[in-house]
Amino acid sequence: MRLLTTIYDVATRAGVSAATVSRVLNGSDSVAPDLARRVRDAVAELDYRPNGVARNLRRRATRVWGLIISDIGNPFFTALVRGVEDAAHEAGYSLVLCNSDEILEKEQSYIQVAVDEQMAGVILTPSSEADSDLTPLLERGIPVVAVDRRLDRHDVDTVVGDNVRGALLATQHLIASGCRRIACITGPTKTTTAQERLHGYRQALTREGIDVDEGLVMIENFKEDGGYAGATGLLDLDERPDGLFVANNLMTVGALEALVDRGVEVPRDLLIVGFDDIPWAKLTRPRLTTVDQPTYQMGKDAGTLLAGRLGGNTGPARTIMLSPTLQVRESSVRS
Amino acid sequence: MRLLTTIYDVATRAGVSAATVSRVLNGSDSVAPDLARRVRDAVAELDYRPNGVARNLRRRATRVWGLIISDIGNPFFTALVRGVEDAAHEAGYSLVLCNSDEILEKEQSYIQVAVDEQMAGVILTPSSEADSDLTPLLERGIPVVAVDRRLDRHDVDTVVGDNVRGALLATQHLIASGCRRIACITGPTKTTTAQERLHGYRQALTREGIDVDEGLVMIENFKEDGGYAGATGLLDLDERPDGLFVANNLMTVGALEALVDRGVEVPRDLLIVGFDDIPWAKLTRPRLTTVDQPTYQMGKDAGTLLAGRLGGNTGPARTIMLSPTLQVRESSVRS
DNA sequence: CCGAGATGAGTAATCGATTTCACGCAAGTT
DNA sequence: AACTTGCGTGAAATCGATTACTCATCTCGG
C-alpha cells in the first residue's frame, strides 16, 4: 500500500524528471514556464507534499530549533518560550521543547539529541554557568544562544536581563521607602543570575552608605522551599530586618508563606520586593512589588539572534541585556 | 571538511561492513561476539553517533511527537505540557511544541508540518470541536490524541476532565453555602468544555429545585476580558446574583478585577468559585475556591495513550475522563 | 560421508529529495 | 558554415542508515 506520493509520481504525471520537479518547487533554477505549469498542476492534482525527512537528509540541515529550558513548570519560562516560539515561527522554524530540570545530565542528553537530529540551532538556559558543555554543538557548527543565564566556557550569543540594575532598583526603592535593615534572599551562586542580583543589592546599600550585614544575606535554592527557609532564618534573627529583597519569583512565594505562618504582616511589619513578575499579581494581597523582566522579549530576542546566525551572520558573539522595570505595588509601601 | 563520522567510517575501522555495524547498534540480529566488540570499540574511538535523519528516512518514522496546544502562555496548559513531556521522555520520544493560538489555520498548518516531518504521533487541544481536521494525519496512519477538549469529526483517543461533574460540584457548593441566585460565566459553546460546564451548572440548580434564570448565564470568550465583561454585565442587572460560577481560570481573574473595580467585596457581597487551579492560589486574597483539574495527569495520560498506540495497540478509541476536585477556600465561604 | 537446514556477514537496494554533471539545442560571433 | 556560448533538462550520484537478499560456512541426522 502506497501512502505517500513522491516526487517521482509528480514527475511521471507531469511528464518531466524528478530534478525538474525539485527545481520548480524550490524556485532557484529557471524552468520553462510551460513545464513549471505542468509540474504545479501535477502537484495540485496529487496533493503532493515533499517528504521533509528526505529533504533534511539531502540538505544536511533541518528547520528545527531545540529549546532546552530548566523547567517549563516555572511560569517565568512560559513567556520566554512564547517569545522564542514566535521568533521561530516568523523565521520558518519549528521548536522542539526540552526540559532539563536543572539537571546537567539531562541537559547534556538533549544536546546530543540536537546533534543527532541535526537541529538547525539551539537555545538554552544553561543549568550551570561553568559546567554546561556545548562542545558537541559548536564543533558541528550548530549555533547556540544562551538565554537568561550566561555561560563561562563558551563564547556564544546571549540574552540576559540586567540583573544588577534590577536588584539595585529594588534595593534603592526599599531604602527610599524607609528601610534600613534590608535582607536579601538569593539563589545558588553558581548561576550568574543569583550572583548579579546579590551584587546589585550590595551596590545599592553601599551607595546609600548602609553597611552590608552578611548575616542578612541568605543563599537558597531558587525554589519555593528555599524562599520559605530563607525568610524563616531571617525572622529568627535577634534583630529582624525591616525590608526584604527576594531574588526570584518562586522564592518570593515561599517567603510570603513563611511570613504569613509567622504572623508577620506585609507591609506593616516588613516591606518586600520580589524579582520576576508572577502571574495574577493583581490578585495577590498584598499586591507584590516586583522587578519585572521583559521575559517575552528575552525569548524573542534570543530567537532573533539565532535566526541571524542561521542567516549567515558570522560576526562576534553578541550579548543583549534587557532592562527590567520596577513595578511598585503595595508590598513595598508603608501603609 | 568532514564533520560527521558515518557508519562507513566505523565499518572501515572495525574491519566489517556497514550492515554489521548497524546490526550491532540495533541489537536485533546476532553478531559474533568478537566482531561486535570490534564494532563497539570503533564506535567509542570515533565517538560515532548515528545520523538520526538518515535513520528516520529509512525507517519511515521519527521519534518525535507533535504537541499542538492553544496557548502556552495560559498556565493551565503548562502543567499539561509537563505531563506530556514526561510521558514522551519515558517512552523515548521528543516533543515538538506548537502554539495554535486557538486559530484554526495555524492548527492546520502545524498538522501539515507533522505530516511532512513524519512525526510519530500528535497530541492536540482542538481549537474547534467541529472544525479541527485531522484527516491528513489519520490517512497516513499517524495516531492522534485529543486532550482537554473532545472532537466531533474524528474518533480518536481522548483525555478530558469531567467538566459536568466539576461544574456540578462548584454549583452545589455555592448552593450549600447559601446562595440562591447563582450566575455562570462560561466560554464559547463551540468548545465542549464550555458546553459541559454550563450543563453541570444547570444540572445542579435543577437538582436542588432552583429555576435556571437564563439572564444569569453569560457566554464570553474564555479570556480575561471575557470574564471582566461577564461580571460587569451581571452587576448591572436589577437583581444582582449572590453567587458566581466562572468556567475557566483566565475569566475568573477578569471577573475578580471587575468586582474590585465595582467595589463588590468577596465573599461578603458575593460568593465565587472558579474553574482550573491558578498558580499562587495561596497568595490571592480572597483565596479562591476552585475546581481543580489534574492537569499534569491529563497530559501524562494523553502521552501514555499515544505511546500505547505507537506500541501497536489497535483497539477502539478510548476516552479517559479525569475527575476534578473542589478546593474550598475563602471566596465561597461566608465570613 | 552427503545433503538439509541454520547461521553469520557482506553486497546492494532502498528510503525520497537535492544537486552535480553532461548533453542537446538555439542563438550569437566571425 | 563553423564554432563558441549559454540555457534548460534529464540521468545519475548523493545524503547515511537500514534491510532484503545472497552466499559461504558450519552442524547434524541418516
Summarize this entry quickly.
2 copies of one chain form a homodimer. With 335 residues, the first copy, chain A, is an alpha/beta fold.
Keywords:
335 residues, six-stranded parallel beta sheet, alpha/beta, homodimer, DNA-binding, 12 strands, six-stranded mixed beta sheet
Q: What can you see in these coordinates?
A:
- Chain A has helices at 7-14, 18-26, 33-46, 52-59, 75-91, 104-116, 135-138, 163-176, 192-207, 224-235, 249-261, 295-310, and strands at residues 64-69, 94-99, 121-124, 144-147, 157-161, 182-186, 217-219, 243-246, 271-275, 289-292, 319-322, 325-327.
- With 335 residues, the first copy, chain A, is α/β, with parallel strands linked by helices.
- In chain A, strands 2-1-3-4-5-11 form a six-stranded parallel sheet, sandwiched between helices.
- The interface between A and B is large, with 47 and 47 residues.
- Strand 2 of chain A pairs antiparallel with strand 2 (94-99) of chain B, so a sheet runs across the interface.
- Major sheet of chain A, described briefly? 6 strands, parallel
- The stretches of 5 or more residues of chain A where confidence is low (pLDDT under 50) are none
Strand % of chain A is 15-25%
Strand order of the biggest β-sheet of chain A: 2-1-3-4-5-11
> Biggest interface and its residues per chain?
A-B, 47 and 47 residues
Helix/strand-derived category of chain A reads alpha/beta
What is the count of helical runs of chain A?
12
Oligomer: homodimer
- What Rg of chain A, in angstroms, do the CA atoms define? 26 Å
Number of strands of chain A: 12
What overall form of chain A do the CA principal axes indicate?
Answer: elongated
